[in-house]
């Protein structure tokens, strides 16, 4: 009997510490390290040529559709899990990539369109805690339909509180090292003359004039100019007008048959009229949108007059949340006044996290069984 007690005590004192250390390692790897292992594989794409004046390029990170849950939708565990995943992925990106600026392309909140004031304030606090940026990194947000509602559901109060709390006016011109970004409230591009739309259209016209004057255009009607002109980059929530996602050929584009479903203007994308007005006013060299939760790359070519063509690439950014897709993504942009280089970065897939945890747990069990058998043989041999 004493022999069995000593044997059990020996097994307990040797196995439990190893089991504990193994479980801790599995947790740390699956909840922390796996993000580094996955995201370190992505990085900034080098420019084809150095900027003429030797200015450092702008390194920008773009995310979209985080859809933080509120009090109505979703289970509390789902809410906690998705927010933890996004927090870890974002903070890992900050550590690995150290971007100069982060752009968040709308639908920060899932229930911003109807939540009361206290809950909205909690939303804002959670957002800035989850997506905290280090000193030296700027963050800009644009509004999405889940933040304030689709056009005819927007009230002055909803629009104002997002603008004031997130420092996100309907239109904003951001200039960094000779690169210019125009951030736009997509829902204010309805074109019906409402006060929010009128303010947005007027501000776009003002920015258009600044760009014309900065480029030396004969159409300049003012004196305000930028230090250095380059064609701007559009940042907004909606994609520009397209008939459907059928033109999207990315591996993470919308699945079939959803991809072939026709878009509804002002609901799934900007209207054709607003898109043409925006492009002709700003002459963008690139555009970034979101909203669909899927990836898409579209090469646009607009010909407003017979002797003038505006060509650029539009990128639709996939959702950053595992709640919206099993393989969320973010973009890294290397930008100079002459070039825009885009790198799409993956994060751990949902099934990868689960399979990794299962395989590591099985490996731990096999190791412990092997250790017990070897330890038992060794102990019995010593007793002989």
What's a concise summary of this model?
With about 375 residues, the protein is an alpha/beta fold. The chain has 8 helices and 11 strands.
Write the layout of secondary structure elements.
Blueprint lengths: L1 H38 L18 E6 L12 H22 L3 E5 L11 H14 L7 E5 L2 H4 L7 H11 L4 E6 L2 E6 L10 H21 L17 E4 L35 H11 L3 E4 L6 E10 L2 E9 L12 E7 L4 E7 L3 H34 L1
Parallel strand pairs: 1-2, 2-3, 5-6, 6-7, 7-9
Antiparallel strand pairs: 1-10, 4-5, 8-9, 10-11
Helix pairs in contact: 1-2, 1-8
Describe the structure.
This protein has one domain (43-348): Purple Acid Phosphatase, chain A, domain 2. It has helices at 2-39, 76-97, 117-130, 145-148, 156-166, 195-215, 272-282, 350-383; strands spanning 58-63, 101-105, 138-142, 171-176, 179-184, 233-236, 286-289, 296-305, 308-316, 329-335, 340-346. The protein has 384 residues and is α/β, with parallel strands linked by helices. It is globular and about 90 Å long. The chain has a six-stranded mixed β-sheet with strand order 4-5-6-7-9-8, with helices on one face. Strands 3-2-1-10-11 form a five-stranded mixed β-sheet, with no helix packed on it. Helix 1 runs antiparallel to helix 8 (350-383). Strand 10 (329-335) and strand 11 (340-346) form a beta hairpin. The chain is built from eight helices and eleven strands. It is a multi-pass membrane protein. Its cofactor is Mn(2+). Its main location: membrane.
């Amino acid at each position: 009997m004493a022999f069995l007690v000593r044997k059990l005590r020996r097994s307990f004192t040797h196995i439990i510490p190893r089991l504990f250390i193994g479980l801790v390692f599995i947790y740390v790897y699956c909840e922390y390290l796996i993000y580094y292992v996955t995201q370190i594989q992505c990085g900034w794409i080098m420019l084809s040529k150095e900027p003429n004046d030797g200015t450092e390029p702008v390194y920008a990170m773009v995310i979209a559709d985080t859809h933080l849950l509120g009090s109505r939708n979703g289970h509390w565990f789902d809410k906690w899990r998705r927010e933890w995943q996004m927090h870890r992925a974002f903070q890992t990106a900050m550590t690995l990539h150290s971007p100069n600026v982060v752009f968040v392309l709308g639908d920060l909140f899932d229930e911003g369109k109807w939540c009361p004031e206290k809950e909205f304030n909690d939303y804002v606090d959670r957002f800035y805690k989850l997506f905290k940026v280090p000193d030296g990194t700027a963050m800009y947000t644009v509004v999405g339909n889940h933040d304030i509602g689709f056009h005819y559901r927007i009230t002055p109060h909803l629009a104002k509180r997002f603008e004031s709390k997130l420092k996100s006016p309907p239109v904003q011109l951001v200039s960094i090292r000779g690169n210019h970004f125009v951030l736009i409230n997509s829902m204010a591009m309805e074109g019906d003359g409402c006060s929010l739309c009128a303010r947005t259209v007027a501000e776009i016209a003002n920015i258009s004039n600044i760009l014309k004057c900065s480029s030396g255009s004969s159409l300049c009607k003012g004196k305000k100019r930028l230090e250095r002109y380059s064609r701007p980059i559009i940042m907004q929530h909606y994609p520009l007008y397209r008939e459907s996602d059928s033109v999207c050929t990315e591996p993470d584009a919308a699945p079939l048959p959803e991809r072939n479903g026709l878009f509804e203007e002002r609901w799934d994308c900007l209207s054709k009229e607003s898109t043409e007005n925006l492009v002709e006013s700003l002459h963008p060299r690139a555009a970034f949108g979101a909203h669909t939760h899927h990836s898409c790359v579209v090469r646009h070519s607009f010909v407003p007059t017979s002797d003038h063509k505006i060509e650029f690439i539009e990128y639709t950014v996939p959702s950053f949340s595992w709640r919206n897709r099993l393989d969320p993504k973010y973009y890294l942009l290397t930008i100079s006044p002459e070039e825009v280089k885009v790198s799409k970065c993956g994060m751990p897939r949902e099934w990868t996290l689960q399979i990794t945890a299962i395989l590591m747990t099985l490996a731990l069990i096999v190791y412990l069984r092997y250790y017990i058998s070897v330890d038992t043989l060794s102990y019995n041999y010593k007793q002989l």
